[in-house]
Amino acid sequence: MPDSTSAAGTERHPNPNEKLVRVFDTEQESEAMVVRGLLDSAGIENDLTSLEAQQDILPGVGGTVILVREEDAAQARNLIEEYRQTPDELETAEISFTEEPPAQS
After folding, report:
1. Are strands 46-50 and 20-26 parallel, antiparallel or unpaired?
2. Helix/strand/coil (H, E, C) string of 45-97?
3. pLDDT reported for residue 22
């Protein structure tokens, strides 16, 4: 079985024999993909898992979770928290309350 270190450009995943910890879950797969990219770019190996339930039996149940090694969990959670705070800061940074409205003629 190959080890978790791999050549550049190849996807890396945690070893399934290691203890993995859930660091993120969402119902939006697109959001999970963004978070996965964030973790990948920080060098944190992760596993994206879909939790699909049969909708006729359990409607509304499902989603996507991201798992990382236990020793990487704190760093991963910090990155995710920074990611979640960034959009609010960007929105408020774009609004200038000091500008006066244009003069009306």
Report:
1. unpaired
2. CEEEEECCCCCCCCCCCCCEEEEEEHHHHHHHHHHHHHHHHHHHHHHHHHCCC
3. 94
Residue 10's pLDDT band, with cuts at 50, 70 and 90, is: very low
Pair 5, 11: CB distance under 8 Å: no
**Comparing C-alpha atoms, which of 74, 83, 76, 68 is closest to residue 22?**
68
Task: Identify the CA nearest to 31 among candidates 91, 84, 71.
Answer: 84
pLDDT at 46 over 90: yes
Across-strand partners of 24? 66
3-class secondary structure, 37:
helix
